[in-house]
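lol forgot to send this yesterday, sorry. struct tokens for the thing we talked abt
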């Protein structure tokens, strides 16, 4: 069975769901990674992207109560917070950021004016930065609160400075699983529809999948096929980020499988092989850790994400990775993997300043 999948990959043919399950279940992980690296190299050579960015979590108050989340608080918790626009802007510690990544919880007390003011403040403070903000879950919840169509919400957010939406909140596209791990969130269809509308409006996005909890191989492959179908329809997805479930400080850890680095690498590789129409696969070092991210870069991923600055969601879930990194450190990590680093913008094009990019020999 694996031999047949190998022949399809060599011929440049699209893999089926059954092919994906072969990749999921074969004990020969080494070959799966070699295949993914072959595809990655054909697409990108040794070029490996990173970005100078900043993460801002504007609130930790959330009513979704996802079983895997260690970050959410109720409004009555002593450490609950909502950042003002000024406080949020002040969370960004450097001026030359290429991208500002803004997310938060589903906070029922925040209205449209809050989000528009937040975007305007960042646009005024960082006019050269792309603002990547608000997951599909946050946007869907805001539309329900405001009793407006998602398209109306997205049009207003775009006018106020929204340049891209992140891929968070996708988790796993199986409603039985979602009712167990994130029952308060938008459904899979609703998540996909927000991205579909965003792409129609010229707002690109990333996508994610959360793996390593109570999902099966079949759930994961179905998730990827649905993302691939979305991209066939809209061509608006810039990058896909496989996210490992982190077991720290959350309820789901009682039922979930233990952490498994081989599963993490397999999901990077399978994403590259299945998502033939999504140009970039990220090795999100904040979730994977540095060493596993380096392995991911030679197993299908072509990007390490960014310098990040302060980020709390992964930290509170038990990530042992550093909370931030310099551009120089990221370049060194990429070079240690035998690859060629380049600083990119939010859309994965080379940084406009002409920053250092090396040519492989």
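and heres what i got for the seq, position by position
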């Amino acid at each position: 069975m694996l031999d047949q999948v190998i022949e399809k990959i060599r011929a440049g043919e699209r893999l089926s769901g059954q092919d994906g399950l072969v990749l999921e279940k074969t004990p020969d992980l080494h070959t799966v990674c070699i295949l993914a690296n072959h595809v990655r190299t054909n697409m990108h050579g040794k070029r490996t992207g990173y970005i100078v960015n900043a993460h801002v979590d504007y609130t930790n108050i959330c009513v979704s109560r996802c079983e895997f989340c260690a970050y959410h608080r109720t409004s009555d918790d002593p450490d609950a917070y909502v950042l003002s626009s000024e406080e949020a802007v002040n969370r960004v510690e450097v001026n030359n950021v290429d991208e500002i990544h803004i997310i938060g919880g589903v906070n029922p007390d925040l209205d449209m004016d809050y989000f528009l003011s937040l975007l305007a403040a960042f646009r005024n403070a960082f006019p050269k930065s792309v603002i990547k903000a608000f997951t599909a879950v946050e946007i869907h919840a805001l539309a329900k609160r405001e009793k407006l169509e998602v398209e109306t919400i997205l049009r207003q957010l775009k006018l106020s400075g929204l340049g891209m939406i992140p891929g968070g909140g996708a988790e796993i596209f199986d409603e039985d699983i979602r009712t167990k791990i994130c029952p308060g969130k938008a459904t899979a269809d609703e998540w996909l529809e927000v991205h579909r509308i965003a792409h129609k409006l010229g707002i690109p996005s990333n996508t994610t999948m959360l793996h390593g909890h109570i999902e099966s191989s079949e759930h994961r492959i179905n998730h990827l096929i649905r993302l691939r179908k979305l991209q066939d329809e809209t061509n608006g997805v810039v990058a896909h980020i496989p996210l490992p479930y982190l077991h720290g400080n959350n309820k789901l850890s009682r039922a979930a499988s233990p952490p498994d680095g081989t599963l993490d690498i397999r999901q990077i590789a399978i994403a590259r092989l299945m998502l033939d129409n999504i140009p970039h696969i990220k090795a999100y070092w904040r979730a994977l850790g540095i060493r596993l991210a380096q392995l991911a870069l030679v197993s299908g991923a072509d990007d390490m994400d960014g310098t990040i600055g302060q980020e709390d969601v992964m930290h509170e879930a038990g990530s042992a990775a550093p909370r931030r990194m310099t551009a120089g450190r990221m370049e060194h990590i990429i070079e240690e993997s035998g690859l060629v680093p380049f600083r990119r913008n939010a859309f994965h094009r080379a940084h406009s300043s002409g920053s250092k990019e090396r040519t492989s020999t």
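The first strand starts at residue 47 and ends at 51. anyway ping me if u want another try
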